[in-house]
Amino acid sequence: MGGKSDGSRGVLVADDEPLLRRLIDRVLRERGFEVTTVGDGDAAVERITAPDGDRFVVAVVDVGMPPRGGAPALEAMLARNPDLGVIVISGVSPDPALRESLTAWGAVFLAKPFAPEELVRAVDEALEASVRRRGGMRASGRGSGE
Fold first, then answer.
1. pLDDT tens-digit profile of 31-78?
2. Nearest 10 degrees: CA dihedral of 99, 131, 82, 50?
3. Which of 4, 81, 103, 139 is most buried when burial is the number of CB atoms within 10 A of its CB?
4. Architecture of the CATH domain 10-133
């Protein structure tokens, strides 16, 4: 389960916790995703802005990772790839400012700790949001009037 109809399966994971990065990597690879993990937001932005950065269809970003947090990285990643599916993970509940950003980014929020099934469901939701932002017609094959 999980995946995009056009074959793109690249997921970028940015979290400062190595154990969690490995867990996310394993869960998503078992479901056929191509996963790249990094330990901070600057490295995530570098990956997205690299020549092959358009292979990523979803980013899983810890909003609370040092040094500056994941929000500035997400802003930069979405500036490069506005159709990127976004999953924000955090060990704390989102405050009003983060909730506003989540809405603006079209992001899925996933509270730590989470079960593997919750992660896969969040990836599916982020992929669906990404397809909708791109126009959605490729996903269904139908126009909006049907």
1. 999 999 999 999 999 999 999 999 999 999 999 998 888 999 999 999
2. 120
3. 4
4. 3-Layer(aba) Sandwich (3.40)
State residue 138's pLDDT score. Answer: 42
Let me know: does 54 contact 100? Beta carbons within 8 Å.
Answer: no
Distance CA 91, CA 113 (A): 7
Alpha-carbon gap, residue 79 to 135, rounded angstroms: 18
Please state, in angstroms and rounded to a whole number, the distance separating the CA atoms of residues 29 and 76. 26
Looking at residue 106, its amino acid is G
Name the pTM for this structure.
0.86
Query: Where do the domains of the chain lie?
Result: 10-133
